[in-house]
Write a structure and sequence with these properties.
Elements: E1 18-24, H1 32-51, E2 60-66, H2 71-84, E3 88-91, H3 95-108, E4 112-114, E5 130-132, H4 137-150, E6 155-160, H5 164-177, E7 183-188, H6 194-203, E8 208-212, H7 219-227, E9 236-238, H8 247-253, E10 262-264, H9 272-285, H10 291-310, H11 314-319, E11 326-328, E12 331-333, E13 335-336, E14 344-346, E15 352-357, E16 360-369
Parallel strand pairs: 1-2, 1-3, 3-4, 4-5, 5-14, 6-7, 6-8, 8-9
Antiparallel strand pairs: 10-15, 11-12, 13-14, 15-16
Helix pairs in contact: 1-9, 1-10, 2-3, 4-5, 6-7
Length: 370
Amino acid sequence: MHTPPSPPGPERTDGSSVQIGALVPLTRPGWVEAGQHLLAGLELAVREVNDAGGVVGRPLELVVRDTAADAQKATAAVDELACLGVAALAGEYHSVVARAAAGRADALGLPFLCSSAVLDALTEQPTEWVARLSPPQSHGWQIYADFLLSAGHSRIAVAAQPSVYWASGTRILRDYLAPRGGTVVELDMSALTPAAVCDELVDNRATALLLLVGHPEPAVPIVKSVRSDRRLAEILIGAPAGQPEFAEWATLLGDDSAGVPFLRYLPERLSPLGARVEKVLREQLGEAPSFVAFEGYDTVAVLADVLRSHGADRARTAESWPRVAVEGTRGQIQFSRTPGISVWQWASTPVQVVDRDPAEPGRFRILHAS
């Protein structure tokens, strides 16, 4: 990635850049489209920081590493970036990968601002080194469970693949729904075909099916199978992890892509900054930016603010998380300690449940908001 150097000015001390390591899934089996949006947001913010004179007179530079949704690859990238002398780490979309990166960053004493991963236990132990912009999974998925109940769904089936993230999601839903009269039936996708899922849904009299699986496989075949089964004409298909957010979902599923509620982390109205960033990102990406692109932009906005105040000293960066107060694209960003969460957390991330409008699948409808 090439960032334009900041214009020479009297405040410029030397020509060396301040480097931020960026962890992004850019190849399969990583969610490539999410990675591209995340990187677009990171890069736009870096360009704008440099156009405004950089950080303490030095240009900001992203050093990008592709994690490909691989935890071992991410850990190796953290080691490499630490040796290269990056001031901080940014990014990552996949929760399990971010958890590996966060654990390594904590062990090395390298500040990591996680852009987009939601797993509650991002590190095993409480850490001062890691902060996060996206809401914890427990918060977002409880809002999703509220949406299901308010829409009249209490018999929920989850089609789940084996993973810490999906298992955590299932547990959150079950714990939240059970005292409110809801039941969660788990369908093991390591043992079931999409056609067999349909039979299970009928047998269990489920009124909603949640896709706790990878995209496009097996999410897309499951949707096609359920949508074509007449016995399941009334069932709601949901995807709390956000698979329908990206254009590829609509391309692969056509009309079947609509009416699948998912979580996204945007406010009802973007701030003036958010609206301006949205316009530039739309031109850059050739499509509407997802919430993940805004997360990328906000990550660099926060890190640049911290680096301006404290320089590139890693320990001072980590110490400054509780004092951050930055206007992001989606609201004022401040970090605090949240009960049960091991990292510094932006506590007021906006959360919405949205779907693609059946009348116009390119348009999103807000169904429920926190």
